[in-house]
Design goal:
Largest sheet: 6 strands, mixed
Number of strands: 6
Radius of gyration: 17 Å
Strand content: 5-15%
Number of helices: 9
Strand order of the largest sheet: 1-5-6-4-3-2
Length: about 230
């Protein structure tokens, strides 16, 4: 899930949708993928499918394959602070429309400079990464940090190279980050800080996409067991 504002992070992390049901009724298969888009017409579905194809390529080239079917639905409203959400077990992604996303974006977010289309595409990549990771077993009650790490990294990786460079210029890419710095508490309390830490940690790995492959295989877990 993508959070636009730290103040709403705790609520948004519950993956709970508030908003009126959409009016989109027809389903369109995105060619060559396992993704279906709900849209009013094929003309409306085509640009979404193009973005889906590009996002899946970004994921696939970094060892995050989508191996099950997913439906993408656009909404005019989601829970405050939420740009998109993947519903675990329901094989469904809900995204704000371009117009709604532009209105809902936080001007203080570290990706606020990214244009709406590129940002929309990155949110789609984020949620598709959640869908792909959904098949990875978790040894604990929750693997929130690992789940969000993969999704946030894929979100940034899907951006145009110039946007990635600008994002990196504004965060600390040099201070070594260990596993313990990627944790669910940072994600819940300061999701924008989590985004920067996740990307810097990813880029500091000797083989970044190989590291993601280790996560996707279940051999690397960033979460720790929590004792009550």
């Amino acid at each position: 899930m993508v959070l636009s504002n730290p103040r709403s992070a705790l609520l948004s992390a519950l993956i709970f949708l508030i908003g009126a049901p959409g009016s989109l009724a027809d389903s369109f298969d995105c060619p060559g993928t396992l993704v279906t888009v709900e849209a009013e017409s094929s003309e409306d579905a085509t640009p979404i499918c193009t973005a889906v194809t590009d996002a899946l390529q970004t994921l696939r080239t970094c060892n995050v394959p989508l191996t099950h079917g997913v439906t993408v639905i656009q909404r005019d409203a989601l829970q405050p602070g939420c740009m998109g959400v993947y519903h675990c077990g329901e094989e469904e992604i809900e995204l704000l429309t371009h117009a709604a996303m532009e209105t809902a974006r936080d001007p203080d977010n570290s990706l606020a400079f990214v244009d709406t289309q590129a940002y929309f595409n990155s949110i789609l990549a984020h949620e598709l990464a959640h869908a792909a990771f959904d098949t990875v077993p978790c040894p604990f009650d929750s693997c929130l940090a690992t789940h969000e790490y993969v999704a946030h990294v894929m979100q940034v990786r899907s951006l145009p190279a110039a946007d990635i460079a600008r994002f990196e210029a504004a965060i600390d890419m040099d201070t070594p980050l260990g596993r313990d710095t990627i944790n669910p508490f940072i994600y819940l309390m300061a999701p924008d800080a989590f985004l920067g830490r996740a990307w810097a940690h990813f880029r500091q790995r000797p083989d970044p996409c190989g590291y993601i492959g280790e996560i996707m295989s279940g051999r690397v877990v960033l979460d720790r067991e929590r004792f009550e």
